[in-house]
Structure formats: structure tokens, C-alpha cells
Write a structure and sequence with these properties.
- The protein contains 10 helices and 8 strands.
- By secondary structure, the chain is of the alpha/beta class.
- The protein has a single domain, classed as TIM Barrel (Alpha-Beta Barrel), CATH 3.20.20.
- Strands 1-2-3-4-5-6-7-8 form an 8-stranded parallel β-barrel, surrounded by 6 helices.
- β5, α7 and β6 form a beta-alpha-beta unit.
- α2 packs parallel to α3, α4 runs parallel beside α6 and α7 packs across α8.
Length: about 240
């Protein structure tokens, strides 16, 4: 992987705002291909089209499950995950059941996440578990890291981007410290400049969820003295992180 793609492949371009149009979804997928990023995280109803637009590009199609609060019944969440997999989803970003976490109902949380992780891994795809750290204390964050490690989740993730705050350095340090080596860490929410991305990378973060893809990678290309990629300004605010 070249120096540019070491950073570009860290990015999940988020297209999750409720007011995003079909045109913006399609433009966002094309932006992702142009910049050669890691994945496009898109609203579930558009996932099949997203996968088609990304075909052969190396950019992965991803979507959200149980978004944004994780309050759906496990049966519904598993069905949602299966539909996403049937639509070509390669990475699923799943919100933990925040209510059950705050209630300390850890058996429920474990069984709920296990059901979704199992169906995702059985399909040969990857999964990220969203904590929504703004609502949690450190003991809850640590317990979630332990559960995700035991269940072999592929990533633990800070936020949906729609809570009261996004990625926070202290949370990233905690999540990396208390997650097993086979679990990666994703920062989402408020990552809008290259220096912040690079700093989070130094903490062990491997993925960034952002809507500021063109800004971040435009600066990255500038520093590497690569030619700029021309994209319409409408791309920059179509996501939600």
C-alpha cells in the first residue's frame, strides 16, 4: 500500500444524514472511488446501489444496523443485518443497545451482539460495534470492550455521529487499552482535519468515520505533492459525521 492509501484506506465516508438525497448518495460513492478510501457507510435502503457503484474499486460497502440508538429487538436487528448482507454489505456498523448497557443488563447485551456478530461472520463479512460513548461511563466502556473482544468483533467504534459528542481522545486510549489485539478501533464524530486523523492513528485507531473526506484527503494529497482531485462542493456536507 502506498503512502497515500495508508491514510485514505482509513476513512469510512459517512452518508447517514436523514436529508441526504439519492443524488448525494451516488455522488458520495463516486467521491469514495476517486479518493480510494476504505468504505462508504450509507443508509441501509441504498446499500445495494452503493455496492454496485463501488464494484471493482476496492472500496467496501458498509451500512448501519440498529441506528442510531440500538433499541430494536434482537430479532429485528439480526434481520436488518441479514438484509444488509444480502444487499452486498461488507462491513456492518452496529449500535449497541444503549438502554441495556446503561441498565447493566450485560447478559442481554452479550447475547444481542453475539447474534448479530455471528450472522455477519457467517457471511464472511466484518462488523463494528458502536458504543455511543457520550452516554457511558468508563466501567461500561471497558465492559463493552471485553464483550466485543470475547465475541471477536472486528472493530469497536466510539460514536454514531448523532449523539451529544463524537470521538474523544481519552475514549480512544481506553478502547485500545481494553480491547484485544484482534479488535481494531474506529473513531467517528468530529474528525474533520488531517492532523486530528494522524494523531488518532498514532493512538492505534485504524478507521475514521467522517463526512469531511474531501477536505482530509485533499490536504493529504497536498502534503504529498499529489495532484488534487476535483469534486463538487456538495459532497462535503452530505454525510452526518
Amino acid at each position: 500500500m502506498d503512502e497515500y492509501q495508508q491514510i485514505s484506506r482509513m476513512i469510512d465516508h459517512a452518508l447517514l444524514r436523514p436529508d441526504t438525497t439519492t443524488r448525494q448518495f451516488e455522488d458520495g460513492c463516486r467521491l469514495a472511488v476517486d479518493y480510494q478510501i476504505g468504505s462508504v457507510c450509507i443508509q441501509p435502503h441504498f446499500l445495494a446501489r452503493c455496492r454496485a457503484l463501488l464494484e471493482g474499486s476496492g472500496v467496501r460497502a458498509s451500512t448501519v444496523i440498529g441506528f442510531p440508538h440500538g433499541g430494536q429487538h434482537t430479532t429485528s436487528r439480526v434481520a436488518e443485518a441479514q438484509q444488509a448482507l444480502d444487499d452486498g454489505g461488507e462491513e456492518l456498523d452496529v449500535v449497541c443497545n444503549i438502554s441495556r448497557v446503561l441498565s447493566g443488563d450485560w447478559d442481554y447485551v452479550y447475547q444481542d451482539l453475539a447474534a448479530i456478530i455471528d450472522v455477519t461472520h457467517a457471511a464472511g463479512q466484518q462488523i463494528k460495534i458502536i458504543f455511543e460513548n457520550c452516554y457511558l461511563d468508563d466501567p461500561a466502556r471497558i465492559r463493552l470492550c471485553e464483550i466485543c473482544s470475547e465475541l471477536r468483533a472486528d472493530w469497536v467504534k466510539t460514536s454514531t455521529g448523532f449523539g451529544s459528542s463524537g470521538a474523544v481522545e481519552s475514549d480512544l486510549v481506553l478502547m485500545r487499552k481494553h480491547s484485544a489485539d484482534h479488535v481494531q478501533v474506529k473513531a467517528a464524530g468530529g474528525v474533520r482535519d488531517l492532523d486530528m486523523l494522524l494523531h488518532y492513528r498514532s493512538l492505534g485507531v485504524t478507521r475514521i468515520g467522517t463526512s469531511s473526506t474531501a477536505v482530509l484527503l485533499g490536504e493529504h494529497r497536498k502534503r504529498l505533492k499529489l495532484s488534487p482531485i476535483s469534486v463538487p462542493g456538495q459532497h462535503l456536507n452530505a454525510a452526518g459525521y
